[in-house]
Design a protein that fits this description.
Order of helices and strands: EEHHEEHHHHEHEHHEEHEHEH
Strand content: 15-25%
Helix content: 40-55%
Shape: elongated
Distance between the termini: 61 Å
Oligomer: single chain
Structural class: alpha/beta
Length: about 350
């Protein structure tokens, strides 16, 4: 049991792991205690140790959150702690130490979604997959309960990955007969020129993020077999015209690079027994200057349409490297007017 004392500076927790395992202790702290320094960079606490005895000094809420993290990581520290595991744990630590939301907001966040599931469990290869922020949980619930869902927000917020996870889950449960992944073939400010190969080889560079998510959630062998059986289809958006997609889970990624006409075309492809998820980041539009984004247009036109859900992510939902969240915040702080002025000068 941890021993705690209080003084003018706040709470001081002292804790010794028992039984003490020096291998786990080394993995927990990292080389030169770099994991402890990473914790101190997240919260205003001081973490010191002497052999297996830890001292955590800071505000009560922060100190207790750090102690809980150390105990969790110690249990996982039979092997060196991967960087991504540590980063996700630090993200959870940051959120756990935030001030509690207002009563009405807290009740809304705790309320089960229309699907009647307080805890969302998705059938994928990633058993630990779940929403890590309130917006991600809301996004998952909306996908499960609506036929068309929009996810709008910056990079790293899990829009594509969680949508693909829901699609894989629906296929595993036989809720749909196939998964269709699509995105506009628009280059990110570059001109790649002629690409050799057949159609699949030409569009693969644009669709690679979708393949990566599938491999992570299903495994390479299962993805390959699913393509052979026609259970999975990946295609550029232009190939959706004229089709009616029945009993399918359809994901449109990078939707900020659609035109309003393309967006309307895609949304009207949805058939019986199908779900559609539309994702995009309106701060990264690669369309020619002056051409309106179909995602921005759809968000305005469809905001009051019954049966369509929209989740807007923020930099607080970023679950990549902590610098990604800071980069997003810096660009958001600059504002669209300054960004437009910068582009005009170039």
């Amino acid at each position: 049991m941890p021993v705690s004392t209080s003084d003018e500076t706040g709470l001081i927790l002292r804790h010794t792991f028992s039984p003490l395992d020096n291998t786990r202790l080394g993995h927990l702290c990292g080389p030169m205690d770099e994991h402890l320094r990473a914790i101190e960079a997240v919260l205003p606490v001081t973490v010191t140790r002497r052999q297996g005895a830890f001292r955590i000094e800071g505000a009560k809420r922060d100190a207790e959150a750090v102690l809980g993290l150390l105990e969790t990581l110690y249990e996982r520290a039979k092997k060196p702690i991967p960087a991504d595991t540590l980063q996700l744990a630090l993200d959870d630590l940051r959120r756990a130490a935030r001030p509690a939301p207002a009563p009405r907001a807290a009740a809304a966040a705790a309320e089960p979604g229309p699907a009647g599931e307080a805890d969302i469990v998705l059938h994928t290869r990633r058993a630990d997959l779940t929403g890590r922020t309130p917006n991600q949980v809301q996004y998952l619930r909306q996908i499960l309960s609506h036929d068309i869902t929009f996810g709008i927000g910056p990079a790293g917020t899990g829009k594509t990955f969680l949508a693909v996870a829901c699609a894989v889950d629906a296929l595993e449960r036989s809720g749909v007969q196939r998964i269709i992944l699509t995105r506009p073939a628009v280059e990110a400010g570059e001109r790649l020129g002629f690409l050799p190969g057949d159609l699949t080889q030409k569009v693969d560079p644009y669709l690679r993020p979708l393949y990566d998510a599938l491999y992570d959630l299903m495994g390479f062998d299962r993805v390959t077999k699913a393509f052979e059986k026609g259970l999975l289809e990946v295609a550029p958006l232009a190939f959706m015209r004229g089709r009616t997609l029945n009993h399918a889970f359809v994901i449109l990624d990078e939707a900020q690079n659609t035109t309003p006409e393309q967006m309307k075309m895609f949304l009207t492809r949805i058939g019986f027994g199908s779900k559609a998820v539309v994702n995009g980041d309106v701060s990264q539009i690669d369309l020619p200057r002056g051409m309106p984004s179909g995602l921005i247009d759809a968000a305005e036109v469809l905001k009051k349409v019954n049966g369509i859900a929209m989740t807007r992510f923020t930099s607080g939902d970023v679950v990549r490297h902590p610098l990604v969240a800071r980069i997003v915040q810096a660009y958001e702080a600059r504002g669209p007017r300054q960004a437009g002025a910068a582009e005009a000068r170039e």
